[in-house]
Write a structure and sequence with these properties.
Alpha-Beta Plaits; six-stranded mixed sheet; binds adenosine-5'-triphosphate; Rossmann fold; alpha/beta; single chain; binds magnesium ion; 12 helices
């Protein structure tokens, strides 16, 4: 639904160059909620602004719903007609809502329809329908100053939906909201995604946002995507930073002569009694240092940190047993496992 290839953005100001995007290949599938996470300055907003051509990329292409936007003329406020039309089908939600304070809630939602040249009666019908969809039917005549932050963001979302977009872009839509309101706005985005088949690309610096609604996620660092995939794929990737951050487990070894192993359960493996099997099969005592079960991307996932007596060399066989059960195994404190390093060397 959204594809960027080799997307780069270099800002030039007062003789200085800042590379905000450095060859970003992003692929968002139709109907999914895709989260991009990264630290401040990583290039997240630049990415989203390039996706709807508010910023013209320095190089690379952006395709949304099969249309190559980078081939269309203009940018920002000077976009050509075709680009403007394409952009009206991409909804955008902002951190600070960007509502016009002099207009009522309904008139704010009508604004993009005015720009599209929709007639007054049709505009008003559509705006009221959208306000109903976001749960604000009774606030049509209010002014933004009379609304709470969460209500303002609902107006922002209704406005973003005015052009019947297939794609919704959201840049830190919940960063200015308290945790409770954040949850309700995320739930609304999830509902819209399901009800309208809307594809959502959202930018956030909060792992909880990714955890609660995203099907897929990417981690950005210094203008590049360093990890990406569905939540399931990330959890199954050894050493994935995103997976570890989505699903933190902690607990330190009780002594030097111990092996600490993180086990990630997802899919079928989540239901099997692997720990007791391990203990019985190898006659070893296993301590559980930490554990968590949660729902990530709508699926049940568990992580457990266990401790086995002896060093890694003494536990190669039990660890192999765990791997054979189809579990994701990360041995702590090993840069690269000796067995895997040998395999790599042999190739
Ligand atoms: N219009 C601009 N002109 C010059 N440099 C810019 C411009 N916009 C962004 N930058 C620079 O590009 C880099 C990436 O900025 P960007 O806003 O994309 O980061 P971000 O990941 O959204 O950060 P945050 O989480 O703080 O919003 C930063 O170094 C920033 O200073
Ligand atoms: Mg930003």
């Amino acid at each position: 639904m959204i594809t960027t290839s080799g997307l780069s953005k270099v800002y030039r100001s007062r003789g200085r160059e800042v590379t905000a995007l450095d060859g970003v290949d992003l692929h968002v599938r139709e109907g999914e909620v895709y989260g991009v996470i990264g630290q401040s300055g990583a290039g997240k907003s630049s990415l989203i602004r390039c996706v709807n051509l508010l910023e013209r990329p320095t190089s690379g292409t952006v395709t949304v719903a099969g249309q190559d936007l980078t081939a269309l003329a203009g940018r920002g406020h000077r976009a050509g007609r075709e680009l403007r039309r394409a952009r009206s089908r991409i909804g955008m939600v902002f951190q600070h809502f960007n509502l016009l304070s002099s207009r009522t809630v309904q008139d704010n939602v009508e604004l993009p329809l005015e720009i599209l040249g929709v007639s007054g009666k049709e505009r008003s019908r559509k705006a009221l329908e959208l306000l109903d969809l976001v749960g604000l039917a009774d606030k049509a005549g209010s002014y933004p100053a009379q609304l709470s932050g969460g209500q303002k963001q609902r107006v922002g979302i209704a406005r973003a939906l005015a052009g019947d977009p297939k794609v919704l872009l959201s840049d830190e839509a919940t960063s200015a909201l308290d945790p409770e309101t954040t949850r309700s706005i995320l739930q609304l985005l999830r509902d819209l995604n399901r009800q309208l088949g809307l594809t959502v690309l959202l930018i956030t610096h909060e792992m909880d946002v990714v955890k609660s609604i995203c099907d897929s996620a990417a981690l950005m660092e210094k203008g590049r995507i360093v990890e990406s995939g569905t939540v399931g794929e990330l959890l199954a990737t050894p050493g994935s930073e995103l997976a570890a951050a989505l699903f933190p487990v902690s607990g330190d070894a009780s002594g030097d002569d111990r092996t600490v192993v993180d086990i990630t359960f997802h899919g079928d493996a989540a239901g099997r009694p692997v720990i007791s099997q391990l203990s019985r099969t190898y006659n070893i005592d296993i301590s559980i240092l930490g554990a968590a079960m949660d729902t990530v991307g709508g699926k049940q996932v568990g992580r457990m940190r266990i401790e086995l007596p002896g060093r890694y060399e003494d536990n190669v066989v039990p660890i192999g047993f765990l791997r054979e059960q189809g579990l994701q195994i990360d041995v702590q404190g090993l840069a690269q496992e000796p067995a895997l390093a040998e395999e790599g060397a042999a190739k």
